[in-house]
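Whether sequence alone determines local backbone shape is best considered at the level of individual chains. Part of our work consisted of pairing the sequence of a single chain with a tokenised description of its backbone. This step matters because it turns folding into a mapping between discrete strings. For completeness, the protein is quoted in full, as a sequence line and a line of structure tokens:

_____
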Amino acid sequence: MERFKDENKWLGNFYDEILVKCPKCESKAALKEVPKNCECGNCTLMVFECKHCFYKINEPVYQYKTFGKHYCSKCFEKFDVESQIFKKVPELYKVKCPNCNFQEDVKPQTYAFKEMPEKDGLVRDSWYNLPLWFQKEVSGNVFWAYNLNHIDYLERYIKADLRERNNDGSGNGTMVSRLPQFVKAAKNREKLLKILKKWKE
């Protein structure tokens, strides 16, 4: 009987390397955690580099949007402002009052956010929005892993006949406690183990 005891790992324990598909050549590439140049010396950032085509990204791609409340300069009525998405911060943004149709340029309050993921059903990393290398559809769900260490941990869990929780106060915060039901289900065990074996080859 195989036994698995939860080591209280969470997804962040597997962030040291995340294998993804290169957006340029579609080969296997990696996001790697590297130290960030900052005063505290403890911060890290994720850097993308493809060993096949040498494409590299050092910073996430951000998009910008302006939204908030505005008072019309003509009728003085207050209305909501929400812009389209911009590639860079706009200096001025043209607004139109919905009450009197007066148009004017305003200096907007702009918010930055990471580039929105494409709606293609793929699981993507949260830094550069790149599709994970290890992912496969299983019974209408996407089964995925970040790297070989993640695969090994999942394999040990799925193989086990006896799965023990090890609650050290982390509650429902461990990776194992948050696995979807299709991964935990005995009926999918052989199918998932075959996928993991193929990924390791």
In short: The helical segments are 148-159, 181-184, 189-200.
